[in-house]
Each structure stands twice: as C-alpha cells, then as structure tokens.
Known about the structure:
Elements: H1 17-26, H2 28-32, H3 37-51, H4 62-80, E1 86-89, E2 92-95, H5 97-114
Antiparallel strand pairs: 1-2
Helix pairs in contact: 1-3, 1-4, 3-4, 4-5
Amino acid sequence: MGEWETTPLHNRGKMTVFTAYVDSYMGALSSDMAWDATKLGFIVAEALDLYGVDSESEATDNTKAHALLKVAAWQQYVIDTTGDFSYSADGESYQRNQAHENGMKMLSLVMREALQYLPDAEIEIGNFDLGLNPYARSQKE
Length: 141
C-alpha cells in the first residue's frame, strides 16, 4: 500500500491512505475528538510501530495493518477521554465518562481481533476461580 495524499478531508489537511482509513473507521468520533491530519498521523505512526515497520508502504498485509490501526485509534480515543468524568449539580446529572467506558470496551474488542499481530501478545487459556459456589446456600459454605 503506497503513501499517497488525497485532497484535504474535512479541512483537516492532507491525508495518507492509513490516516484516511482511521478517519473513516472512527467516523463521527474522529470529528468529535477534533482529530486533524497531525493527530491521525500520530495514530498511524503508533500502528506502524506495532506492525514493526517504518512506513505505510512497508505494511503490506492489509488485514494486519487494519487491525493494528483500529487498536491505535481506540487507544488514542481512550487517552483523549481519560479526563471525562461524571458529576451531579443542581439536580442535573452528567455522565461524560460513558464515552471513556465505551472506548475501553471497543479497545478490548479490537485488541482481541489484533492479538495475533501484537508483538508481545500471549494467549493463555485457564480458569479463574472466584471462590464462590453457585450451588451453595450461602457464600460461607
């Protein structure tokens, strides 16, 4: 996939193939977060680092590249929404942290898709014992 630039997209500056992919994939969230070509370029650079290459033209496996671009995009979204919080005042309740929580859920989802491509990923299958017996009358048993 070569590096080429398109015409300015939504007045955000010149876009590469991968920055345009991230912008399209994130949809309205990209605009809501005010991600310009510089921020999108940073997200692409993070994904290329995960891929283990220095340029878009070296990232020849589109499936791998797209999975890692999604991971990098959601990581940035989570970082950008970290300061969002919930609060109540004057009888009103504001739930701004829902965006962050949803971003974490999406990051978890795309991480599972990209797990096979992540450089330090390990897949381990096992059991997690909570120490609770669902068939006991009380949890003291």
